[in-house]
Amino acid sequence: MILALAGGVGGARMAAGLAQVLPPESLTVVVNTGDDFEHLGLSISPDLDSVMYTLAGRNNAAQGWGLEGETGRCMEALKALGGDTWFFLGDMDLATHLRRTQRLREGATLSQVTRELCAALGVRHTVAPMTDDRVATRVLTPDGELDFQEWFVRRRCEPQFLEVRFDGAAAARPSETLVRALADPELDAVVICPSNPFVSIRPILALPGVEEALRLRRVPVVAVSPIIGNASVKGPLGKILGELGWEVSSGAIARHYGDLVDGIVIDAGDARLAAAIEANCRTRVQAVPSLMKDAATQRRLAEAVVAFARNLARQ
To answer: Does domain 2-314 bear CATH number 3.40.1080.10?
Structure first.
């Protein structure tokens, strides 16, 4: 049994790799919902959708988000009418948001809706939100505090990243799926996917009791670095690290997680960093090819991560 904490494109691809090597009853993927927001009257859960679509084999692999073969005629019509189109919603993707919004207004929880959507998409592995309560990631910039999607999509990450906070996290309750997974006596390892540690993983850790449970763990926690060389594979992580005064490297990721993790998987091209990470962070290191370009490379990385976790558990 493995619990994976995920968000963003890297989290979705890692979840897809793990789903190739683990049966449905042996994998639970808990997904960041700090990015969730309401747009055009619809409840949008970008990270949950990325994970669901990827596990269903329906994601747009080239762009990393959305559905393959998506069209944008609704957005084109909305723009012609003077509507707000800064956040693109594809025609097929709209069906997901319409259904989620309908079910939430009927009183279903986000966990319930996610289970229903996964079943409809043919996703057999467990996918759940980090919480059913409202948590909103807010980015502090020289222009003031911005909602995450305002900073990330509308402003294209241009305002300097100074700090991040998670509105509502202190009062939110971790989802039942997350609580059960952390307490499951059959749990063998926790995998922190190669997601942005500041805006995809920290919202999960900010929920009451989650980080404490990981620190009191009886199983290994393994992080997969989202940095290869001196750049993030996807998204603004490299920019964030630089603006916070950190070097852009897997060493910085290891220092960020510190003693929360027992091991970190880095790219084979960064193997020279292993000795320093193990000495300075007291974290075991596994260096393997980590760029996930397709299903085959996702599977190979997942196999390496699972093997590394099992080796740590035996030590």
So the answer is: no
Instruction: Output the pTM of the full model.
Output: 0.96
Q: Are 20 and 302 in contact (CB under 8 A)?
A: yes
Any idea what DSSP says for residue 82? T
pLDDT value of position 198: 98
Q: For the chain, how long is the longest CA-to-CA vector? A: 63
Round to whole Å and give the CA distance between 315 and 197: 27
Task: Single out the residue of 60, 85, 89, 64 nearest to residue 7, CA to CA.
Answer: 64
Which tokens belong to 282? 């007291």
Q: Residue 60, CB half-sphere, CA atoms under 13 Å: how many?
A: 13
Q: Residue 45 and residue 231: Cα distance in Å, rounded? A: 26
Nearest by Cα to 150 from 162, 142, 138, 160: 138
Instruction: Return the structure tokens found at 67.
Output: 């559905």
| β-sheet bridge partners, residue 37 | 44
Burial (CB count <10 Å: 0-12, 13-18, 19+), residue 72? middle
In this prediction, residue 64 carries a pLDDT of 77
Under DSSP, the state recorded for 265 is E
- Arithmetic mean of pLDDT, 240-262: 96
Q: Are 31 and 7 in contact (CB under 8 A)?
A: yes
CA distance 101 to 66: 18
**Can you tell me the distance from the alpha carbon of 46 to that of 29, in angstroms, rounded to the nearest whole number?**
15
295 phi, psi to nearest 5 deg: -60, -35
DSSP codes, 175-235: -HHHHHHHH-TT--EEEE-SS-IIIIIHHHHTSTTHHHHHHT-SS-EEEE-SEETTEESSS
